[in-house]
Design brief:
19 strands; mainly beta; two-stranded antiparallel ribbon; about 450 residues; 16-stranded antiparallel barrel; single chain
Length: about 450
C-alpha cells in the first residue's frame, strides 16, 4: 500500500473522529447549562440506525474473463464471501419552532480500508480502489424548517428520492438479502447530494422537489450506467452544472402507495477536467434524464412491491469517445468506459406472512416467504456501436424473511442471474441478519 494512500486513510479517519467528537461535545455543552435544560435537550435528541451482516456463496467463477471466454469458466466451483454492506448511525435534533437537524453516517463494507479489485469488464486489469473496498460516507447532513403541512424546506446533504430503492433503502423495505439488483446497478444507490429540497403534503399526495449538482458523464460506465456518476474523488463535489429532481407519491387507494420520480441535468463538463473551449466538444451538453415509477401494496399478510426505471443520455456516442480518451495517468480516477445511450430496470417482488395462515398477528413476529424478479440492461448503445450481451440480465430469486421482534430480520435467499445463452448462468445463495430502529 503506498504512503500517500495510507496518509489519505489516516486523514479520513481523523476527520470522521473529529466530526463525531464535535457532535458529542456540542451535545454536552448544550445540556450542561442546567438540569432542566438537560432533560429537555435529551428528549429532543434522536439516535438510531440500521445494519446488515451477510454471507453469500456464488456458484460461478469470479474471474474477470468469465464473459469473454465463458467456456473456460463454465465448470467453476464458485466462491464465497462475507460482507457488512451497510452499518448506519442516524443522529437528529429538534431545535424547536419548526427547526431540526438530521445526519446519517454510513460505513459500507466494513469501513475505510483500501482495496485492490479486478475490473468486471474484459481487460482484467488490477485497480486500486477505496470506494469499493470499504468507505465511510456522510449520507445525510441537513437543517430543515417545517412551515406547514404543504410546504417545508430542507438544505444540506440529503437523499435524492429518485427510484423506489433510494426512497426506501433501509433493509426492512425490501425482501432480498441485498438491495434490488436492477436499480442498484444503473443509478446511484443510495443517492445522496448536497442541495436544497422543498417538500410537503396535499391530502393524499406528497411531493419532494430538489436542486442539486448534476451527475458527471466521465463516470458513466457500460457496466453500471450512472451508478457511480454522483461520486467525487475530490474533497468537494464539482457543481459546474445543476440538476433538478422531483418525486410525487399518492396514497388515495387503501394500502397502496404509488410514486413517480424523475431527474434531469446536463452531465458534460461537470468535472475539474473540461474541454469547454474545444471545437470538438464545446457544444456537448450530455443531457441526462431518468424517470421511474414504483409502488408498495399491503393487504393482510401480503406485500407486493415493484419498480420500473428508464434513463437516457444525449450525445452518448460522443461522450463514449471522450471517456475512452481521458487521462491514463497513474492515479487517474476516470473509468474510461463506453456509456450507453439508454438504460432500463424492472423489478417485482411479492411476499406473504405465513403466520397469518394460523392467526392474525397482533405481535411483531413475521415469517415471509417471497419471490423476486429483476430485468435490466446497463448498456443500450448509441449509433453504430455494438451491443454488449452480458449487460442485459434477468435475475430470479426467492427466500424467507423471519422477524422475531420488530427491529430484527433474518433473511435467506437463493437465485440465479441469466444472460444471453453464450454466457454462463450465475446461481447464488445468501443469508444475513439485519436490524433497523431508533434508540430511546
Amino acid at each position: 500500500m503506498s504512503v500517500d494512500l495510507m496518509q489519505k486513510q489516516k486523514k479520513m479517519k481523523r476527520n470522521i473522529l473529529f466530526v463525531f467528537l464535535t457532535l458529542c461535545v456540542a451535545c454536552v455543552a448544550v445540556n450542561a447549562q442546567d438540569t432542566t435544560t438537560s432533560i429537555i435537550s435529551l428528549k429532543r435528541l434522536s439516535v438510531g440506525g440500521y445494519g446488515e451482516a451477510v454471507y453469500q456463496y456464488n456458484f460461478f467463477s469470479d474471474n474477470p474473463f468469465r464473459y469473454s471466454n465463458a467456456d473456460r469458466y463454465k465448470d467453476s466451483k464458485g466462491h464465497g464471501r462475507v460482507d457488512i454492506p451497510h452499518a448506519v448511525i442516524n443522529i437528529g435534533y429538534d431545535f424547536g419552532h419548526g427547526w431540526s437537524f438530521g445526519t446519517e453516517i454510513e460505513f459500507e463494507h466494513g469501513g475505510t480500508e483500501a482495496a485492490v479489485e479486478v475490473e468486471a469488464e474484459e481487460s482484467g486489469e488490477f485497480e486500486k480502489e477505496i470506494e469499493r473496498g470499504g468507505e465511510v460516507a456522510l449520507e445525510q447532513f441537513w437543517i430543515q424548517k417545517i412551515f406547514c403541512n404543504a410546504f417545508n424546506i430542507r438544505a444540506g446533504h440529503v437523499i435524492v428520492p429518485v427510484g423506489g430503492t433510494n426512497n426506501a433503502h433501509e433493509p426492512d423495505k425490501f425482501f432480498g438479502v441485498y438491495r434490488p439488483e436492477g436499480e442498484n446497478t444503473i443509478i446511484p444507490c443510495t443517492w445522496h447530494e448536497t442541495g436544497i429540497e422543498v417538500f410537503g403534503n396535499f391530502g393524499d399526495w406528497r411531493y419532494d422537489a430538489m436542486v442539486l449538482p448534476s451527475l458527471n458523464s466521465s463516470y458513466f460506465t457500460e457496466a453500471g450506467w450512472a451508478n457511480g456518476a454522483s461520486a467525487s474523488p475530490y474533497e468537494f463535489r464539482v457543481a459546474n452544472n445543476l440538476a433538478g429532481a422531483l418525486r410525487i407519491d399518492n396514497y388515495t387507494v387503501n394500502n397502496l402507495r404509488i410514486g413517480v420520480s424523475g431527474y434531469v441535468g446536463n452531465t458534460f463538463f461537470n468535472d475539474i477536467v473540461t474541454n469547454e473551449n474545444s471545437k470538438k466538444y464545446g457544444s456537448v451538453k450530455g443531457l441526462v434524464y431518468i424517470g421511474a415509477i414504483d409502488f408498495d401494496y399491503r393487504y393482510g399478510g401480503l406485500v407486493v412491491r415493484g419498480n420500473a426505471d428508464y434513463g437516457h443520455l444525449d450525445e452518448a456516442d460522443i461522450i463514449s469517445t471522450y471517456n475512452k480518451n481521458l487521462s491514463h495517468a497513474t492515479g487517474s480516477p476516470f473509468p474510461r468506459s463506453l456509456v450507453g445511450e439508454a438504460t432500463y430496470a424492472f423489478g417485482l417482488e411479492a411476499g406473504y406472512d405465513l403466520l397469518q395462515l394460523f392467526a392474525p398477528q397482533k405481535s411483531s413476529r413475521r415469517l415471509y416467504i417471497f419471490g423476486r424478479y429483476d430485468r435490466y440492461d446497463s448498456y443500450l448503445p448509441a449509433g453504430v456501436r455494438s451491443k454488449i450481451g452480458w449487460t442485459e440480465r434477468q435475475c430470479v430469486s426467492g427466500g424467507i424473511n423471519y422477524r422475531p421482534i420488530a427491529p430484527i430480520i433474518i433473511k435467506a435467499e437463493g437465485g440465479v442471474r441469466l444472460m444471453d445463452q453464450q454466457y454462463n448462468s450465475e446461481p447464488w445463495f445468501a443469508m444475513g441478519i439485519t436490524w433497523v430502529g431508533m434508540f430511546e
